[in-house]
Amino acid sequence: MLKRPLERGLFNIIFHFYQEPHSKMMKSVFFLEHSYELEGEEQVKFIGVYSTHAEAEMAIERLRHKKGFINHPAGFDISEYTLNEDHWATGFVTMTSIHVKDKNGEWMIVSGECLPDGNYRVIEKYKNDLLGEFKDEDIVRCEERDEELYTVEKISS
């Protein structure tokens, strides 16, 4: 039995929430972020999550004249996210830069997918015809030299 007024109040709120028609239940939320570029790097700040677009806009109004934000007024972004839905439905890979030799034996930088076994998958869709021994989708072993990765061996094609 609920005796305290606060407990009765919470009970009533929860009871009424579940009695509301499904169509009135919250279906999405609004994320507010602020970003800008500093020395070639994107700086992103997560501001908050709001129940309506209007609430997120009011947060922008509260912040736009504050230190830092005032210098980057166009950096605010509101994104709507549907609840109970996967918003990243695929896996992910970690990418890095690796050096491979071109047809002339000169080093060039391409993208490389970091594999769990410590090897790399060469990713070069646009200049693949310029590459020498190591081509797009090849699995390679790399060595670190001067904090850079250089291909040294093809593991598989």
Keywords:
elongated; about 160 residues; 2 domains; alpha+beta
Topology:
Layout: H1 5-19, E1 28-38, E2 41-50, H2 53-63, E3 76-82, E4 94-101, E5 107-114, E6 120-123, E7 139-145, E8 148-156
Antiparallel strand pairs: 1-2, 1-3, 4-5, 5-6, 6-7, 7-8
Question: Could you please describe the fold and organization of this structure?
Answer:
With 157 residues, the chain is α+β, with helices and mostly antiparallel strands. It folds into two domains: 28-83, no CATH class; 94-156, no CATH class. It has two helices and eight strands, in the order H-E-E-H-E-E-E-E-E-E. It has a five-stranded antiparallel beta sheet with strand order 4-5-6-7-8, with no helix packed on it. Strand 4 (94-101) and strand 5 (107-114) form a beta hairpin.
How far do the termini sit from each other?
70 Å
- Helix share, percent: 10-25%
Q: What's the Cα radius of gyration?
A: 26 Å
Any idea how many domains? 2
Spatial strand sequence of the major β-sheet: 4-5-6-7-8
Beta fraction? 35-45%
Biggest sheet layout: 5 strands, antiparallel
Tally of separate helices: 2
What is the average per-residue confidence, as pLDDT, rounded to a whole number?
87
Report the structural category.
alpha+beta
Total beta-strand segments: 8
Shape: elongated
**Which stretches are low in confidence, meaning pLDDT under 50 for 5 or more residues running?**
1-19
User: What is the N-to-C succession of helices and strands?
Assistant: HEEHEEEEEE
